[in-house]
Design brief:
By secondary structure, this protein is mostly beta strands. It has three helices and twelve strands. The strands form three sheets. Strands 3-2-6-9-10-5-4 form a seven-stranded antiparallel sheet, sandwiched between helices. The chain has a three-stranded antiparallel sheet with strand order 1-11-12, with no helix packed on it. A hairpin with a 2-residue loop joins strand 11 and strand 12. The N and C termini lie far apart (45 Å).
């Protein structure tokens, strides 16, 4: 209890949040020759002027550690048909290290790897962090952004990838 109010139990929170439809991104960072990325749905734009976004990552992840050390991260928004990339960067394919191995990547300003063939890209500099339970919310200025001419975003709801109707 906080301030004498009960808190939802974790399973009821997870069950309710599964109903929320979210886009699928890969958040990545690099520091001193090491690079890592992970699938993240906790991503949103928070300001157009100055251009800012936020991502929330569990504090125990390798990507979190690299962002914390470097102060930079990249975001690739995945498009329909890239479920396999989401699974790979979620660690569901058995490939924990070398997640970028064999993939075409590029960088913009920070050196954070971005995945070619994505729907949109953001290159970001962390300006503030907020601890939230076992996670960290990274507030970041967008140094560069680019959108492709590809189709529609890959979305996820209730443990299933979805496609947006045209």
């Amino acid at each position: 209890m906080v301030n004498n109010y009960p808190l939802a139990d974790p399973e009821s929170l997870r069950s309710a949040m599964r109903k929320w439809v979210a886009g699928v991104t890969v958040v990545s960072s690099a520091f001193e020759g090491e690079e890592h990325g992970m699938t993240v749905s906790s991503f949103t734009s928070i300001s157009a002027q100055p251009p800012m976004i936020l991502v929330s990552l569990e504090s125990s992840t390798r990507t979190h550690a690299l962002i914390f050390l470097s102060g930079f991260f990249g975001v690739t928004i995945l498009e329909q048909g890239q479920e396999w990339l989401s699974e790979r960067f979620a660690g569901r394919t058995g490939l924990e290290s070398g997640r970028f191995s064999g993939l075409n990547t590029f960088t913009m300003i920070s050196g954070s790897p971005l995945l070619e063939g994505g729907l949109a890209y953001f290159d970001c500099r962390v300006v503030n962090t907020v601890r939230a339970g076992g996670s960290t919310v990274f507030l970041a200025e967008v140094m560069a952004a680019r959108a492709s001419e590809n189709s529609a975003a890959l979305v996820y709801a209730n443990r299933t990838y979805r496609r947006l109707a045209q």
